[in-house]
Amino acid sequence: MAQRPLSVLVVEDHPTIARQVVDFLEGLQWQPDHAATGALAIELATREPYDVVLLDLNLPDLDGLEVCRAIKAHAPRNQYWLRQNGIAPGATSKRVIDADPADGTTVSWTEAGNGEQRVALATIENGGHTWPGADPFNVGLPIGATTRDVDANEVMWEFFSRHRTATSAAHR
Q1: Which region, left, alpha or beta, applies to residue 24 given φ > 0 means left and ψ of -120 to 50 means alpha?
Q2: DSSP conformational letter for 3
């Protein structure tokens, strides 16, 4: 059975970054949509069954956390994605990751699967949106501690590697 392309909502207000991410995902034969504002992201994410939402926290109209809360309020605790993938909501595993207690953050990881698909929700408590090893400030404004409990780049690459289509694997 051929795996269907992933649908991805890219929420990013910086046009160059957004274009690069969308182009990359299209090159993998996935189906990305783009929202440059929080309002549009909420509208799209509550209307469309996205497999993945890549969400920038520093948006021009709404704080990314507000956007995340609004999407979660529409489908509390990833129930929307569980339903879209035919995964029973009771079959979830939960764990807390605090690999570096000194960074002041923790990651709550909730995951469920049905043998074919998996859905994961990572929530970073007290953390900002910068990447591990990056400067913890964005345009000179503090946005929260950078978590060292998980490497977001590694998590995303592992996810995308598990969801390669025959076409996307050929583009490696």
Answers
A1: alpha
A2: P
Cβ(38)–Cβ(62) under 8 Å? Answer: yes
- Determine what percent of the chain is predicted with pLDDT higher than 90: 28
Neighbour tally for 101: CB within 10 Å: 10
Domains observed in the chain: 7-170 (3.40.50.2300)
Question: Rounded to an integer, what distance in angstroms lies between the CA atom of residue 57 and that of residue 92?
Answer: 26
Which bin fits 102, alpha (ψ -120 to 50), beta or left (φ > 0)? alpha
The alpha carbon dihedral of 124, 17, 5, 3 has a sign of negative
What is the phi/psi pair of residue 66, to 5°?
-65, -40
**What SS3 state is found at 24?**
helix
Q: Convert the pLDDT of each residue in 100-123 to its tens digit.
A: 899 888 888 888 888 878 888 888
Residues 38-94: pLDDT tens digits? 999 999 988 887 878 899 988 999 988 899 888 877 765 567 678 777 887 666 788
Residue 117 tokens, joined? 């698909």
In sequence order, what are the beta bridge partners of 164? none
- Nearest residue to 6 (alpha-carbon basis) of 118, 91, 88, 93: 118
Q: Measured between alpha carbons, how far is 145 from 154 in angstroms, rounded to an integer?
A: 19
pTM attached to this predicted model: 0.53
